[in-house]
Amino acid sequence: MLHYTIVFFVIALIAAFFGFSGIAASAAGIAKILFFAFLVFAALSLILGRRSPV
């Protein structure tokens, strides 16, 4: 998921460089959503993944 975030971020940077504001804004928005989803899943895996052996 972090890979897709980076891909959409690069697309947003390239589109912003060439002046395609609509494409850049939508790609940046998708990258932001995927980044926050990645953070939530990473935090959940850290919290739920550390179970003590019983």
3D structure, described in words:
By secondary structure, the protein is mainly α. The protein has one domain. Helix content is about 85%, strand content about 0%. It contains two helices and no strands. The protein is rod-shaped, with a radius of gyration of 16 Å. The N and C termini lie far apart (about 30 Å). The mean pLDDT is about 80.
Secondary structure: elements and pairs:
Blueprint: H1 2-18, H2 21-49
Helix pairs in contact: 1-2
Topology order in helix (H) and strand (E) letters: HH
Radius of gyration: 16 Å
Query: Structural class given helices, strands, pairing?
Result: mainly alpha
Give the amount of beta strand, in percent. Answer: under 5%
Ends distance: 32 Å
- Largest sheet report: none
Nearest-integer average pLDDT: 81
Our count of helices gives 2
* Percent helix: over 70%
Principal-axes geometry comes out as: rod-shaped
Low-confidence stretches are none
Q: Into how many domains do the coordinates divide?
A: 1
- How many strands? 0
In brief:
This protein is mainly alpha-helical and 54 residues long. It has helices at residues 2-18, 21-49.
